[in-house]
């Protein structure tokens, strides 16, 4: 049933270039996703290449190479997910101490950026406040993927932002097989054991992190167990130690998967506990900071059906039950804030490899129930919220040779039901319903061998969060007095992104520009007023029309061994529509990252630099942030021995102890970011 | 094979059971006492310190005590959004709290209600933050108030003797101290 695509080229050189560029052959360059390459049929000696149509577009195949995994992930592992991906295109991170760091995409933060774990929501409150950490241990991630383009709509309405996918592989379908069951990858034996141990230590925040995991497969029943721990002290900065920034994380994960004829079933249970500090000593803040204890429990059930007539057309159902508890202690006795979140989510998705002119079709629905209770010094009423949505993504070949089009849509609603509370203004306790829709279209044209021009156009939206609607009080850990607005409408916007990619024999480069016109952009903005009871600055959530624009570019050498160079830069700016087109708050400044390395078969040595310009584009009452330059070096060893693979990554960051201020950090006026930092990651897999 | 299926079922059941505990908050939300300013009076109801919307009145004498001595009773009043003086909450949920910058220099003696005594320990300067405690947290707090602890005096030479009658607690006055709470309200502009 699969459609044949014919690509004709005229010379052997072009032939090779096409193979490297369009298909990214594993043999030559290694930048092509395996699922794309496996169906590719090539003839190096012929001027005609015939490729069997993939289930994903060429662009998605190329994007797959940008996923952080294996050695590429090990090279960048840091304290948090945000810090690990900070040098990816369009990525910055907001922070409030090293633990409370969350990724920002194209200058958009909070609920514009969705974080998922193993394909389902990451149940935490990190999107709601700068002092809330992402409840996920980065060392347990097998892959970190930044979803871009129309695929975002399978998981979120916020196409202007993005989705950070964390893959733990707690349900290991790929090694769960029964005899006679259909297989999708290489054959495996009936009994299989796979284990891994990773240790990480650093001097910038003295401490260690470790993860130990074991996967076993016995006659089709696949089991997984994993333990992780992190214990890190106060962060060292060039100005001294930043007190109350310690982190203590623990996670336990167990998973099981079983295959019965054409059905696969899996379940996993993952706990994550974290105790971390938010520094103090600021005007309006607690002198000794705030200690936060959070715990998260996720139960995930997954089912997969592979039809007999076409096993690629899968139907998957994922259910996740999440419990999240979060307590903020002002001192050992004082509970400043407490949150208890219970959430259930069902995600149903049908994948169709090919239907008519379309391929790689995802159709599905998502249903979500969330209940949140507050205690202590929190001024948001307890609220139940419900959400339902339908989504679809499909690709087709366009009317021009080499043109691929991906269309996607997501329709749904959010229904928010606050409960009466002594802390909330009775007039503000109002049920709210939001109808939401978002669409996206991506046109990717191969303009020449190895060269792709892509245009994305989209409508983005999101419902206000319950904090944005109903909050009315101080948030001590964030050093703010927060005011919501129960009359807020949903945020929406229209945007476009134009990207060019060039995959050559020596270098690969890409550049993109993007722009989004927001209607009713929701953000807390400093009002300049102070709540004198608590002596805290007042932030009010408001909806304003705004224009966000930006660009990013990256370049890297293509060689697998020998000299390697890579550089990337990102810039974004945002304006509110008013008389002066005033600047939006919390927009990261221009940032550059570059690396030179030499790669041997088992060893890689490199030096790198990172710099950011000063941020002088400021919203009202926002403070200017100076620029910085840092230099680093790395040395890696990777080798295999007696059925095991070993990696050691030594890294030195900010070697000259530069005073680095993150514009998106609430602490920037008091202390710089991490100073000189030497880290080591050691990993063994068998 | 059936054993394995049973094992899988058992694992899944165990996972379900592990998620069975309830998840709710252990602390309750409560209405909070909001103020815009604080005013501290001496035992004789002379104003010692006042702050309104973050601005301290620099003409006032401030808080002083000698080392080795206890100050007379200091009354605590609050200012609302109209700068009208109001008394502290008259319930069991709220109480006066404090935070001393240097506990080697200053101590606080608390006798209940909305008042306190300064106790000088060592000559020097330190800071005091007063709070309206409400359960486990503070509804309101002052900025850091400077407290001067003057030279040490012999106990018998201290201006205020601990066994001396505290005028604030004396009966029959306008500034009565009843049941740990002041039934006192007057306007000062």
Structure commentary:
The complex is a heterodimer of chains A (686) and B (189). In chain A, 6% of the residues lie in helices and 55% in strands. With 686 residues, chain A is mostly beta strands. In chain A, strand 13 (235-237) and strand 14 (240-242) form a beta hairpin. The longest helix of chain A has 12 residues, at 12-23. The model of chain A is unreliable at 1-51 and 176-188 (pLDDT under 50). In chain B, a hairpin with a 2-residue loop joins strand 2 (47-52) and strand 3 (55-56).
Key terms for this structure?
heterodimer, A: 686 residues, mainly beta, Maltoporin, Chain A, 2 domains, 22-stranded antiparallel β-barrel, 5-stranded mixed sheet, 6 helices, 6% helix, globular, disordered N terminus, B: 189 residues, 7-stranded antiparallel sheet, 14 strands, elongated
Summarize the structure.
The complex is a heterodimer of chains A (686) and B (189). With 686 residues, chain A is mainly beta.
